[in-house]
Design brief:
This protein is α+β, with helices and mostly antiparallel strands. The protein has 3 helices and 10 strands, in the order E-H-H-E-E-E-E-E-E-E-E-E-H. Strands 5-9-10-8-7-6 form a 6-stranded mixed β-sheet, covered by helices on one side. The longest helix is centred in the first third of the chain and has 24 residues.
Amino acid sequence: MTIRFRYGGFDRRVWWITALTLIVAGGVCAWLYVVAAGAYYVAVWTTTVCVALLALVLLSVPRRIILGEEELELRCLVETTYIPLRSIVDVEVLEGSGLSHRVPLLGVYGLWGYYGRYLDLRSWHILKVYATRRSGCVAINTTKSRYVVSCNAPQLLRTMVLEAKSRVAQE
């Protein structure tokens, strides 16, 4: 039995940060094109780097969570993270803003979501975050690492993962 969960829509903050980032990047590229009157390679190089970074960001946007018989899948556009149910230690719903006191180390903060490696300032652990919004987050603790995902139904996700984990443990 496979159960699919949606990450949900983007929150208002994500849309504002995305729009502001695109406007600033476009403005910088246009400004460099105007300022570098004889050296257009600077403007072209900067534009190419900005487009490449935006493409990398777009490829990592979280799409859905799939709970299978033996594993939990966190699917992005290109990448899929598999978490074996046997390795899950605990699942907890994070109250309020699930990303408060967490700082991105190698990831994205607000540009089409929140994803990548984050540092938890309370416990000083490195988290793997796959979220499209700051609310409705679920922390999945495994034997190796900790994941934070956002979901439309966080309590249902927690319940279903714990039930599937106990079913796998009985086998």
